[in-house]
Amino acid sequence: MTVDVFTTRHPFLDGKAKRMLIGGKWVEAASGRTFSSINPATGEVLAEVAEGDAEDIDRAVAAARRAFDGPWRRVKPYERQILLLKLGDLVERHFEELAALDTLDMGAPISRTGANRQRAVGMLRYYAGQAVAIHGETIENSLPGEYASFTLKEPVGVVGAIIPWNAPLSSSIWKLGPALATGCTIVLKPAEEAPLTPLRLAELCQEAGIPPGVVNVVPGYGETAGAALASHLDVDKVAFTGSHLTGQKIVAASAGNLKRVSLELGGKSPDVVFADADLDAAVPGAAMAVFANSGQICSAGTRLFVERKIYEEFTARVAAFGRGLRIGDGRDPATQVGPLVSAEQLDRVTGYLAIGRQEGARPLAGGERLTEGDLAKGFFVPPTVFADVRDDMRIAQEEIFGPVISAIPFTDIAEVIERANRTSYGLGSGLWTRDVTKAHTLARGIRAGSVWINCYQAMDPAVPFGGYKMSGYGREGGKQHVEEYLNVKAVWIRTG
Ligand code: ADP
Predict the structure, then answer these.
(1) What is the fold of 270-460?
(2) What is the 46 CA–ligand 1 centroid distance (Å)?
């Protein structure tokens, strides 16, 4: 059954989220506590959600360990492939419902959440393919005598996945896909701001026939449930997506058993526009590199470097584009920019708007919270463009995670590469030019995990995504992602 979430009460809005999935059973938190999930467009409570803590994480990790040591161990790659394909079919069938849950829970417009089908369904099908492509190697050795040597690839074991709220459906799938493909088991801790889609996805995992304990979902707060998962001595790997400050805590918490860690963290990505670019494409491209998802994307191109001779014209056009976007409740299909996810995020972003003005940046668009009519009830900040930004300003250095562009002029290519790299982050980067030499020079010169040329935010399950520097380590997507969920075992046989 597919539920129209905007018109019908969805079971997860109507009490079902008070339970979480542990060891194949829907159970209440051991403490009996729940917390409220808020609709950021209206400020209203959407649902009461089970508040997992260290005790629930213990139960979930034990279930995941039992499943890992049990029959799941003997499930063949081909059978895991079928499970992933079944899950992909279910996600496709229920895609509108899942997208609508994302919209209600974290605010992104349905025009966005409903368009990301391939990042969810395509990812599961890509990992279905990867499940049957895992292989070790036969390696020639030089020992005296007769020895054969080869490698086996084995699942790392129990994975703790901690995800943020800015894309709950795809973030969950980007952890589930490689875990299931490789034969790991998983305890997924959704963000407290947006736990509903991951819970519904857990139900679809059951429907797909994934055995009990292989996928467990424990909602709860970061400082309790998240910290318990990151430090748990029986978790073999933590896959984390979130802020760099939490990433540092995760690394510290991993030391107890030296578990493997992969980190997809924040950014302050440069987007460089040369005067020779196709400006009609660069204006919307550079604007949506930040305004999409209200700027709540880790790789948003928030430092907009514009060649000085087109700086005034180009920034004015980006500002006009931002002012023309439709802001509102994400349930309206015409909405292009939704609210920020929470009151905390609203405080943080409006704090940076004030800092930008104090630092002497010139607002060309936006710059204040929106409080007209119904918008006052939600957490709305309009697309904002600050001009006259200097590299040393806080709005040019710190991740805002809101719809805020810091526009900076530059003169030549060597200078812009050096200035683009003057950040502690290195996640995304963009450049707009018709000159292939400039494109190559920047693609090699910028220290970041992705370079988008004449586009921004292009992503595909087969292409690796991840950070340099304080944007983290490890890659999601592509073959390397699978390797991160595998151990390599060397086997020697004396044959002579
Ligand atoms: P954001 O600022 O995007 O909310 P966070 O890094 O705070 O980013 O949150 C991302 C995820 O990390 C969420 O699921 C959150 O609950 C979790 N988290 C927050 N603090 C901790 C912590 N100390 N240990 C483990 N997980 C945490």
Answers:
(1) Aldehyde Dehydrogenase; Chain A, domain 2 (3.40.309)
(2) 21
